[in-house]
Structure formats: C-alpha cells, structure tokens
C-alpha cells in the first residue's frame, strides 16, 4: 500500500498528541516539574485557583500514582499513544462501516473532516451508558457541542471496551482525564487525522502496522545506536514486515503443515508464495511421513484445523497473525466448516501473540478483531477471547504480601516466588524467557486456585489473585508448544543491550548472544513441536559469521531448513543502503537426514524485483543436501555452491601431499612493503629502471 501520507502524518501526530496531553495534565495541576495539591470543597475540587467537579479527583489520583511509579514523560507518552490508537481504530471502523450504529464518529456523513456525523445525529444514537436525556439537553442548548461530542466519543469508547478491553480501557481511568478539549475545532487532533490520510488508505488493516511504525520512528531515531533502556526496546527494535515476506513465511509453515497432512489438498495452488519442495529420496520421504503421522495422531485419524497453533512471539501490530488468519481460513473452508463459525474458531483456538509493548498488543488485538469482523458481523455480540498478551513485570518484593493475602488457597510460597522471579524483567527479556518444565506442570493447578480466590468474598485475596493471574497466563503461553512460530524478531546487537539484557543473553543463550534476533531463532525451536515450523525473517549474519558458528552447527545438526529466501539488502522499503541484509526462512523442528531444502538467491536483485523473482521461482537452488554444509569448516550456509565444490572439502588436504612454505620474506614488512595505493605511481618500477619500489607477489 502507499504509505507516503502515513509517513508524513504519524511522526508529527506523535508530537501533537503528546503536546495535547501535556496541556491537559497542566490544566489539572500536573506538570513535569510539580504537582499542585488538590483540596475537596463539598462536591467540588480546588486545584490551585481552579475549580473542578469532584469526579476529577479519582482519575487525577490514578494519574499521579502512575507518574510516581514510572515518570511524567513515560506516562504522558503512553497515554498519548493510547489515544492515538483509539482514534485510529475508530477511524478504521467508521471507514469500513463496522460501527454498530452506522454513524461516523470522527468525520462527517460524506467522509470529510467536518462536523462529525454522530454529533449531527446524536438524538438517534444508542450507546451503552449514554444518557439520552442528557444528550437531548446538550443538543437543544445549541452552544454545548464540545461537551456533547466529548460525551459521545467517550460513550463510543466505553461501548468498544466490551469488545476490545485492552485497547479501550474501562470508564473513568486516567487516560480519559487527558482527552483534550476542543475536539470539534478545525485544528483538533481528530480533524488532522481525518484530513491527513485519505479514506482509501484505510481500506486495508495493514494501515494499523504502518501507523505504529511511523508513529514511533522519531523515538527510534533517538535511541538507535545507543545502549537502550528497557522502556525504549520496542521503539528501537520495531520494524513492519513487507506483506509478501509475511505471506511467504505463513504459507510455507501453516500451509506446509496442512499439505503434509493432506497431500490431496489443492490449497497450495491458491497460495502464491507457497514453495513446492525439492525432489527427495524415498528415505527422506519416509522420515517426513513418520514425522507428520506423529502430529496427526495427536488429533486422531486426521489433522484437525482447530488444533493447529500459531505463535508470533514479537507480534507488534499483528501483521503476521493477520496473514496466518488467511491461511487458516482457507484450511477451515477446505475442511467444510461453515463460514460464519470460522472467525471465532481461529481467534480462540489457533492464533497466539506476545509482545513487550502493551500498545503493540492493543493494535494486534484490534487488527485480528477487524479481520474476523469482516467475515462475521455478529462477532461483537459475543466477543471472542483472544490469545494476545503484553508481558507484564512482576513484583518479587511483594511475595510476603501475596502469600498472606492468599493463605487460604494453599498455594505454596515457593511456587509464587518462582513465578514472580521468572517475570521480574519481562519488559526487558520479553518472549526469550523460558518457563521451567516443573513450573509449567504446576500452572493449571495454580491458575485454578487463583481463579477461585479472585471470585471469593475476601477483597485482599481477590486483588492479589487478579494481579497474579496475568503472570500465570503469560507463563502458559510462553511454556506452550506450537505448530508454527512465525516472527520478524527484534534486531539488537550487544552494543545496544543494557546490562540486564546482556547478562541474560550470556547466561541463557551463549551460542546466540551476539544479537536478539539470533536468540529468538534458538528460542523459536523450544516452542516448536518436532513436526512444527520455525519461520522468521532475520539478519543473514547467522548463516556465515564465526560468532554464530556454534549456533549454526546446532541448527544444521538438529533442525531442517525447508525453504529460504536469501533477501540480502533492500528487502525492507523503509531501510535504505546495505546495512540491513536479511534472510527469510522456514525450518522444521526435527532434523531430516539427506533433506534438500529450496533456496532463492535474491541478494543481487533490486528491491522491487525480489518479490517478483520469488513468485516466478527464479534463482532457485534445490540440489544441495543440508548435511553437506557441514563439510566446509565453520558450516556456512553456502547453498549456491555446486556439489563438486562440496566434494573438494572431502578430499585430502593440499598440505598432506606438498610442503607449504612462505614465499618472499622481508622480515620487516612495515619497512619494506607497501600497498599499491600507498606509493606514488612514478615511484613504481614496472620493467627496467631505477624506481625505488617494485611489484611483488606475497601470500
């Protein structure tokens, strides 16, 4: 899609939203420098010399508490982005006609950036919690459009809270307090959103991911190349994946699993990025059949679509999960499911997403819900339970308090401590956290006891249980095994890692500690079933560099490369130059002896031709057996070499037949040798002459 308008709008929108939130916070006596005291006067609240309704007290106190927990800057930045998310979500829904009442909330009936349609037709609007008499009173007054529109917009957000609680938080929270004034004015944030991005750009849910990328682009520029703080890791590592690369990964993992289990399936003909495997020997095919038969046996006589699980461990705005949805939908349809039943089944049974950024998880949830809503307009009447989570940090220092509050549940304090210790740095380590097997076995019982406590009459027990249940949920998702792990993991070398992350990498991922993406490759196989697929687009460095040799040798020994698109530089349109050189691959969880992967060498292909060449099957290499890579010292993934070259490495060494010695030796190269560019041309002797410097061959 054309991203030029989004690229122009989103970075400036971030500055505008933050400025608006700052102004609103200052209105309530809260700035970066100080917080004015608030004094209750009957049913009024006095802040400085300004009087407010007493209803301001509770959300203001919540806002202050949040600032004290983190900082003024982080709090304002978070709430600004939350409102940006919400308004973008509403804009997408109104453009797609997905709001139940059928009116536009941000734009005029004709789609222009004028007076919002919901304000014009407010007397006909029915939203949960909206006081019809109050609406009529404000409308008939004639001079209270701003107040009326604010109530309508908040009512719309509250209504959507029932469907998307992560994105549209509950009533009367601190983010509602910072919603700016003058929302219907010509210079408002809403008018700018409507006028800056043409309506046709809202036709594809991909816009959510692009808005996310460009919104944080300035923040990314500020932190890139430095040691990154935990709260800045999302901005430093986020990168929206081109759609065709995502399709390639999804169709050759989720799709490949289905075609292995159902050779009679015709879906591969419809998947334009599906790669037909290389011709294999009978022995290889027998190993593949045994592998898929074990997976099928988990479901009975045939692979059940409802049992296929897909994880994106760094899900961002949900782009990969949306494409996986399309693959799964095709599988369900081929299997004969009713169209209206499929969306809910996919969201509740098949798709899982994890991120360290709550804002990204909000967008991922929204993108999936919108995708499903297009297929089932009744979906919001009974909202599905999504498996999308933002990892939360625990508070190990509160162990004794939790234990005391939950004393009646018989939960062992040691189990609570293990859970709390595991997630102390969730926002830094993210999905790389591995759940010990012993703890994973205890999670069902722990969850059951906490749910009972959360429904008890003991308020302290309820509160502690509600705080701990999300930790159990994230432990379950991190400890689960999946049929397909698909990701564009974060890229960050050791220079960018803070001390905690660097120490964690050395301890938990000694073979891949050089970069986050390499650690995610290794972590991906822990999630994978033997028959499952680890599909990622990463930097290409793991294929060749000596720093990844141990990791590479383990992968080639224990796993199977099914297909790889070696993209090289310029695969991502937003990254110019040769710095980021990437490869997209699909690996299977178990090693298949003698397997021939399919590679595509696109490193020398122009950016706009990489996709076309992949679809056309150009530059395909499928004659090399994966095991041959180990013949070359260091085991580089040099798939383009001929079999004759690999055979050379099995021959005897030159030194075993001949004595190898140094040629001409000066005994002091610093004095007697120069590179050719270090010497002026007229000083070099090419034939006979008296010039000082002569050419020499030196190995």
UniProtKB/TrEMBL annotation:
Listed GO biological process terms: DNA modification; methylation
Enzyme superclass (EC): transferase
One GO MF term attached to the UniProt entry: site-specific DNA-methyltransferase (adenine-specific) activity
Recorded superkingdom: Bacteria
Keyword terms: Methyltransferase, S-adenosyl-L-methionine, Transferase
The keyword Manganese belongs to this UniProt entry's keyword annotation: no
Domain Type II methyltransferase M.TaqI-like: 349-569
SUPFAM superfamilies: S-adenosyl-L-methionine-dependent methyltransferases
Presence of keyword Hydrolase: no
Catalytic activity: a 2'-deoxyadenosine in DNA + S-adenosyl-L-methionine = an N(6)-methyl-2'-deoxyadenosine in DNA + S-adenosyl-L-homocysteine + H(+)
Listed Pfam families: Eco57I (PF07669)
The protein's Enzyme Commission number: 2.1.1.72
Protein name, as recorded: site-specific DNA-methyltransferase (adenine-specific)
Organism: Acinetobacter kyonggiensis
């Amino acid at each position: 899609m054309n991203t030029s308008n989004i690229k122009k709008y989103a970075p400036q929108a971030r500055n505008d939203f933050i400025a608006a939130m700052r102004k609103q916070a200052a209105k309530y006596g809260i700035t970066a420098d100080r917080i004015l005291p608030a004094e209750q006067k009957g049913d009024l609240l006095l802040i400085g010399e300004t009087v407010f309704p007493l209803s301001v007290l509770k959300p203001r106190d919540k806002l202050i508490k949040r600032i004290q927990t983190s900082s003024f800057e982080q709090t304002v930045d978070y709430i600004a982005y939350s409102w940006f998310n919400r308004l973008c979500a509403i804009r997408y829904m109104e453009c797609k006609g997905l709001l139940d009442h059928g009116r536009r909330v941000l734009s005029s009936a004709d789609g222009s950036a004028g007076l919002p349609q919901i304000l014009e037709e407010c007397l006909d609007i029915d939203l949960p919690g909206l006081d019809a008499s109050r609406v009529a009173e404000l409308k008939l007054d004639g001079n209270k459009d701003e107040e009326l529109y604010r109530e309508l917009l908040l009512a719309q957000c509250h209504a959507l809270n029932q469907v998307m609680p992560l994105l549209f938080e509950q009533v009367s929270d601190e983010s509602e307090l910072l919603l700016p004034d003058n929302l219907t004015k010509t210079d408002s944030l809403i008018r700018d959103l409507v006028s800056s991005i043409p309506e046709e750009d809202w036709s594809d849910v991909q816009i959510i991911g692009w808005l996310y990328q460009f919104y944080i682009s300035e923040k990314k520029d500020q932190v890139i190349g430095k040691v990154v703080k935990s709260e800045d890791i999302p901005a430093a590592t986020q990168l929206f994946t081109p759609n065709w690369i995502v399709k390639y990964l999804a169709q050759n993992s989720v799709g490949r699993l289905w075609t292995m289990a159902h050779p009679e399936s015709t879906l591969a003909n419809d998947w334009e990025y599906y790669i037909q495997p290389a011709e294999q020997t009978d022995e290889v095919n027998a190993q593949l059949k045994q592998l898929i038969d074990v997976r099928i046996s988990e479901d009975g006589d045939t692979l059940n679509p409802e049992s296929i699980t897909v994880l994106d461990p760094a899900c961002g705005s949900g782009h990969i999960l949306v494409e996986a949805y399309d693959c799964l939908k095709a599988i369900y349809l081929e299997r004969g499911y009713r169209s209206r039943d499929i969306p809910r089944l996919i969201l509740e049974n098949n798709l899982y997403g994890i991120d360290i950024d709550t804002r990204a998880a909000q967008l991922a949830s929204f993108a999936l819900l919108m995708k499903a809503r297009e297929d089932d307009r009744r979906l919001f009447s009974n909202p599905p339970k999504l498996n999308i989570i933002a990892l939360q940090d625990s508070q190990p220092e509160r162990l004794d308090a939790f234990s005391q509050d939950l004393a009646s549940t018989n939960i062992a304090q040691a189990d609570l401590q293990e859970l709390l210790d595991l997630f102390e740095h969730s926002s830094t380590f993210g999905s790389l956290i591995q759940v010990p097997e012993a703890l994973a076995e205890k999670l069902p019982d722990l969850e059951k006891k906490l749910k009972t406590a959360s429904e008890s009459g003991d308020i302290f027990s309820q509160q502690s249980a509600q705080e701990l249940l999300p930790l159990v949920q994230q432990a379950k998702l991190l400890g689960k095994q999946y049929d397909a792990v698909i990701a564009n993991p974060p890229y960050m070398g050791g220079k960018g890692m803070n001390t905690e992350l660097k120490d964690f990498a050395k301890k938990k991922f000694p073979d891949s500690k050089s970069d986050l993406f390499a650690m995610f490759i290794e972590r991906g196989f822990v999630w994978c079933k033997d028959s499952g697929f680890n599909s990622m687009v990463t930097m290409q460095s793991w294929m060749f560099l000596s720093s990844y040799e141990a990791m590479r040798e383990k992968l080639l020994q224990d796993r199977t490369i099914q297909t790889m698109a070696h993209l090289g530089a310029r695969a991502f349109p937003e990254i110019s130059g040769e710095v980021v050189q990437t490869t997209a691959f699909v690996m299977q969880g178990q090693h298949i002896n003698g397997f021939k992967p399919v590679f595509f060498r696109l490193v020398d292909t122009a950016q706009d031709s990489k996709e076309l060449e992949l679809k056309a099957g150009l530059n395909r290499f499928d004659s090399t057996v994966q095991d041959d890579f180990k013949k070359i010292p260091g085991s580089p993934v040099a798939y383009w070499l001929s079999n004759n070259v690999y055979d050379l490495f099995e021959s005897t060494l030159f030194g075993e037949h001949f004595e190898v010695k140094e040629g001409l030796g000066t005994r002091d190269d610093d004095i007697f040798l120069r590179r050719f560019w270090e010497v002026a041309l007229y000083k070099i002797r090419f034939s006979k002459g008296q010039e000082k410097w002569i050419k020499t061959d030196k190995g």
